[in-house]
Design brief:
The protein has helices spanning about 25-35, 60-75, 85-95, 105-115, 120-135, 160-195, 210-220, 260-265, 270, 290-305, 325-335, 350-360, 380-385, 405-415; strands at about 10-15, 40-50, 80, 100, 200-205, 235-240, 245-250, 280-285, 315-320, 340, 365-370, 385-395, 395-405, 420. The protein contains 14 helices and 14 strands. The N and C termini lie far apart (about 60 Å). The strands form three sheets. Strands 6-7-5-8-9-10 form a six-stranded mixed β-sheet, sandwiched between helices. The protein has a four-stranded parallel β-sheet with strand order 2-1-3-4, with helices on both faces. Helix 4 (about 105-115) runs antiparallel to helix 5 (about 120-135) and helix 5 runs antiparallel to helix 6. By secondary structure, the chain is α/β, with parallel strands linked by helices. A hairpin with a 3-residue loop joins strand 12 (about 385-395) and strand 13 (about 395-405). It folds into four domains: about 10-115, GTPase HflX, N-terminal domain (Rossmann fold, 3-Layer(aba) Sandwich); about 120-180, no CATH class; about 200-345, P-loop containing nucleotide triphosphate hydrolases (Rossmann fold), CATH 3.40.50; about 365-420, Alpha-Beta Plaits, CATH 3.30.70.240.
Length: about 425
């Protein structure tokens, strides 16, 4: 549903209503990147500034007629607004423009549909699409059976309205039940991790900040990376080990974006729930962006909505290879507690690992481990799960000076290892 089957030519419309917090150039660039991620060719962009929204057309009728002429001139077959339109506004615009008109939510849904590959991702995208459509089942109605025809097309008439509503409600209920099963499966994995006392870091941040590149660098994975927005929709988890044998589970999550539609956040809660169970959030920010404060604020806003702002968080500036030494120094002065890396160039990755270890070091205890020779098979476990600082031997035992998490020490103690914590 909503996936664009062939290359379309789009006339873009960005409407600024009142005073904007973001720079216009930044929003235009992001808008164009969104459209490019959907595989649509941009033929032109029109910037419209208004003091208030027109309830019938969102913009003035005269401006709509100008857009209609420009669409013909540029041979566009779709008009895309970087704003959310009501059903009535969209219908009225299409009546004058003569071609389909897409709003911001539909555009993002189209991108999500292209990038969803797992069963969970596809379920979440379909749920978001149907929830969006259900709120627009008014007036002429929308036939569920024609949804595969592309984003923004409309149904034939009002006689199908009640049938459409019932079918969509049934499908939404079915999708929610299936996502409930996914939630149960994730809960089983979480309980296992909790039992094993596994530490979890989750990557969060604005889309295209380089989260997946950093994920691949830290975990030696080969997850797909791209300059397109929303490349990652499905939560992926891999483990990596710090220099002291401290094992960490790292999760990569869907990126956030300015004015992310609330129903998309709701639909992806099954994925975003992973963030609640993280011991540490790594907030990744594109250091080369011209709007760093707003990128950070946009992600923080979503974290507030998810009630996650109080979660321990480490800010990580990525892509420092794309900025000057002067700009890097200014960033360090502004964010003295952050870490500055280039995931693609593998710059300062060790510093990031050291910072993560420093944060988790409160859970690590230095101790003397006395291992009798008759249980020396535990030495493999010690080297795999502890940071061994020194080893010496007595007549009947090996003595390890090591750092380890308390639950690891408790496990060794239960197996007969004599533990003496160093205060």
């Amino acid at each position: 549903m909503y996936q664009t089957e062939q290359k379309e030519k789009a006339l873009l419309v960005m409407v600024e209503v009142g005073r904007q917090n973001w720079q216009t150039e930044t929003l235009i660039e992001e808008f164009k990147n969104l459209v490019a991620s959907s595989g649509i060719e941009v033929v032109d962009l029109v910037l419209v500034k208004r003091k208030e929204i027109n309830p019938a057309f969102f913009i003035g009728k005269g401006k709509v007629e100008e857009l209609a002429a420009k669409a013909v001139e540029k041979n566009a077959n779709v008009v895309i607004f970087n704003n959310n339109l009501s059903f009535t506004q969209q219908r009225n615009l299409e009546d004058i423009l003569g071609i389909k008109t897409i709003d911001r939510t539909q555009l993002i849904l189209d991108i999500f549909a292209k990038h969803a590959h797992s069963q969970e991702g596809m379920l979440q995208v379909e749920l978001a699409q149907l929830q969006y459509l259900f709120g627009r089942l008014k007036g002429k109605g929308i036939m569920l059976s024609r949804l595969g025809g592309g984003i923004g097309t409309r149904g034939p008439g009002e006689k199908k309205l009640e049938v459409d509503r019932r079918r969509i409600v049934d499908r939404i209920r079915s999708l929610q039940e299936k996502l409930g099963e996914v939630k149960k499966y994730r809960e089983v994995i979480r309980k296992k991790r909790k039992k094993e006392k596994t530490l979890i870091c989750s990557l969060v941040g604005y889309t295209n900040a380089g989260k997946t590149t950093l994920f691949n660098t830290l975990t030696s994975s080969t997850q797909k990376i791209s300059d397109s927005l929303f490349t990652t929709l499905d939560t992926v988890s891999r483990s990596f080990t710090l220099h002291n044998n401290l094992k960490i589970i790292l999760t990569d999550t869907v990126g956030f974006i300015y004015n992310l539609p609330p129903n998309l956040i709701e639909a992806f809660k099954a994925t975003l729930e992973e963030l609640y169970y993280a011991d540490l959030l790594l907030h990744i920010i594109d250091a080369s962006s011209k709007d760093i404060e707003r990128l950070k604020s946009s992600t923080d806003t979503v974290l507030v909505d998810l009630k996650l702002l109080d979660k321990p968080t480490l800010v990580v500036f990525n892509k420092i290879d794309k900025i000057s030494d002067f700009e890097l120094k200014a960033l360090k002065n502004t964010y003295p507690d952050a870490v500055f890396v280039s995931a693609s160039k593998k710059i300062n990755i060790d510093k990031l690992k050291e910072k993560i270890y420093e944060i988790f070091s409160k859970t690590v205890t230095e101790a003397i481990l006395k291992v009798p020779f008759n249980i020396m098979d535990l030495s493999e476990y010690i080297y795999a799960n502890c940071e061994v600082l020194k080893v010496s031997y007595q007549s009947n035992a090996a003595v390890y000076f090591a750092k380890a998490r308390k639950e690891k020490l408790q496990y060794l103690q239960s197996k007969g290892v004599i533990i003496e914590e160093i205060k």
